[in-house]
């Protein structure tokens, strides 16, 4: 089954470019387009896409609010959201991740990276490119906890190894990279990540990364 993708961007030329890239892949099908958040909601209900490629700044309804409605408790389907961004909109990326986005990607990312991101998000993983994550967190270092705050009680539910894994997830490492770092199998890492998400009541790796920084477990630049 092909991955069903909905393109949401207020610039038709960009949507056309993304469509050309994605439709060249045998396992991806672009099922629709929308020029703003309100149209996106209608299209998600009508087309039931697997992944929504979502711009942030759009008329009528922005990508943050659209993401919140698409992935929230009253969602109409299984769609996951991959946010498109530029670095001058970083504050909106943070809000989009909190709203339920499964990751973010630069608008000028190479075609191969866009395709891979679609596949990663469709598979239920998070798209947290380490270079983007570091720049995002460095920019907002002053707004994040210093790491000297008391550790939240919820973290005490985790084993020492699970805390290690959470820290590495927060830095944008993939399961294979974490496995190499900790000298364990990738299957073991997947098990640890699953335990972390369950114990902390988190939806996915993106929420885990946000939690790790907001709780002060990980500090930008550390």
Automatic annotation (TrEMBL):
CDD domains: LuxR_C_like, REC_NarL-like. Signal peptide: none annotated. InterPro entries: CheY-like_superfamily, NreC/VraR/RcsB-like_REC, Sig_transdc_resp-reg_C-effctor, Sig_transdc_resp-reg_receiver, Tscrpt_reg_LuxR_C, WalR-like. Pfam families: GerE, Response_reg. This is LuxR family transcriptional regulator. GO terms for biological process: phosphorelay signal transduction system; regulation of DNA-templated transcription. The keyword Chaperone does not apply. The lineage of its organism: Bacteria, Bacillati, Actinomycetota, Actinomycetes, Kitasatosporales. The modification 4-aspartylphosphate is found at residue 55.
């Amino acid at each position: 089954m092909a991955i069903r993708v909905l393109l949401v961007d207020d610039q038709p030329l960009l949507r056309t470019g993304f469509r050309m890239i994605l439709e060249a892949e045998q396992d991806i099908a672009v099922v629709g387009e929308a020029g703003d958040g309100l149209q996106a909601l209608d299209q998600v209900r009508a087309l039931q896409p697997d992944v929504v490629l979502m711009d942030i700044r759009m008329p009528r309804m922005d990508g943050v609010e659209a993401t919140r409605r698409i992935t929230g408790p009253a969602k109409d389907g299984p769609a996951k959201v991959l946010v498109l961004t530029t670095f001058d909109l970083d504050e909106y990326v943070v809000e989009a991740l909190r709203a339920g986005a499964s990751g973010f990607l630069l608008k000028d990312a190479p075609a191969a990276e866009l395709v891979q991101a679609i596949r990663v998000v469709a598979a239920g993983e998070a798209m947290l490119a380490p270079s983007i994550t570091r720049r995002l967190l460095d920019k907002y270092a002053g707004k994040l906890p210093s790491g000297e705050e008391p550790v939240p009680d919820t973290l005490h539910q985790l084993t020492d190894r699970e805390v290690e894994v959470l820290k590495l997830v927060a830095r944008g490492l993939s399961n294979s990279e974490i496995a190499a770092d900790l000298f364990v199998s990738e299957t073991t890492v997947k098990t640890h990540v699953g335990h972390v998400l369950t114990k902390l009541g988190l939806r996915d790796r993106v929420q885990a990364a946000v939690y790790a920084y907001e709780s002060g477990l990980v500090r930008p630049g550390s």
